[in-house]
Design a protein that fits this description.
The protein is an alpha+beta fold. 31% of the residues lie in helices and 26% in strands. The chain has one domain: Gcn5-related N-acetyltransferase (GNAT) (Aminopeptidase). It has four helices and five strands. Helix 1 packs across helix 2. This is GNAT family acetyltransferase. It comes from Roseivivax halodurans JCM 10272.
Length: 131
């Protein structure tokens, strides 16, 4: 397998399909388009032209930024793609965001160990879910 790394946002269709394959919640196409457009930074992993992984940094770019949408197609898991995405997102954040910018993420319990390896700490908080 030969993965090609990129920084162009995926199409709305690719984004929706990868989220579905990765078991993430569905986003309305208009919301997905707006979200992708508003990204501070995007990392994609493609096998040939097929999107097999991605992640984004969103936020105000000064005080707060958040890593979101880390998703890997189940066929391509356990091949270092998730780690590669996270490495690239963090490298970008360290180079481009102010040192005082808070970089956070929300993780599923099964992925805590990956994020802890990159210096993230588990903290409690509250999130408002639409509905």
């Amino acid at each position: 397998m030969s993965v090609t790394w990129g920084n162009e946002p995926p199409s709305v269709g690719e984004y929706g399909e990868l989220r579905r394959l990765a078991g993430l919640s569905r986003r309305a196409p208009n919301a997905a388009a707006k979200g992708l457009e508003g990204s501070l930074h995007v990392v994609t992993a493609r096998e040939r032209a097929r999107l097999v992984g991605m992640g984004r940094v969103v936020g105000d770019g000064g005080c707060f930024a958040q890593i979101v949408d880390i998703a890997v197609d189940p066929e391509f898991r356990r091949q270092g793609i998730g780690t590669g995405i996270l490495e690239r997102l963090i490298a970008w954040a360290e180079a481009e965001l102010p040192a005082s910018c808070d970089l956070s993420l929300i993780a599923d319990p099964g992925s805590f160990e990956l994020y802890k390896r990159f210096g993230f700490e588990i903290r409690t908080g509250m999130v408002r879910h639409p509905g």
